[in-house]
Amino acid sequence: MDDFRAFFHTVGAAPNPGATAVELDAFEARTGLSLPAQLRTFYMSTNGLTIDGNGSRYVSVRPAAWMEILPLAKVVPYVEGMRQYGIPQVWGYFPFTDCNDSNPYCVCCNGPLRNRIVHVFHDDVAQLMFWELRRFLDAVATAVVSRGQDHPRLDRLPGEYTSDREDRTEDEVRTGLELLKLADGFTDVEHDDALRFAIALLSEGREAARAAKLKL
Q1: Which fold has domain 5-155?
Q2: Considering the entire predicted model, what is its pTM?
Q3: Which tens digit of pLDDT belongs to each residue from 115-135?
């Protein structure tokens, strides 16, 4: 079972009372989302969290060091709003954060991307960012404790798939190939998202990744 106390301490944020199993079940019933186990465990540790750096023991505070991990009560209208405005739902987006920019980091609840973290933009294409929730939280903690002019912004974390690293795990490759197959059954935004996410999960040297780029 995940223990998030080290994360709360690092970012200098006191956790809220956790959501109960009954509250989580009610959320799933209302939204139709089936939460990954890691996400449920997080919300049982704290139902939302505000990270502003002011409580951190590190000297790194600046305006871009603010993030709200949304409580369930705020996630519900966000999910409903995303559906209303046509944000693709095939991946089961759970809007996890708000940095006051309408560009939430979302935990995927559906299909091969379950538990993956996607950055969903209101004015740009979505980007696959992290393989799992724990890695995302590690990146948030790193951004809070980093010092100097070049430390990452919470609203623009670099993610795991923005560099040209060649190494990929078997799970990443398998998921990337599965997304390529799914893309053939999608149209429009869902099709392009599936291809883009697959390319992120496949190394630059793979023929499948090069072929997917040609389809975008």
Answers
A1: SMI1/KNR4-like (3.40.1580)
A2: 0.90
A3: 999 999 988 999 999 999 999
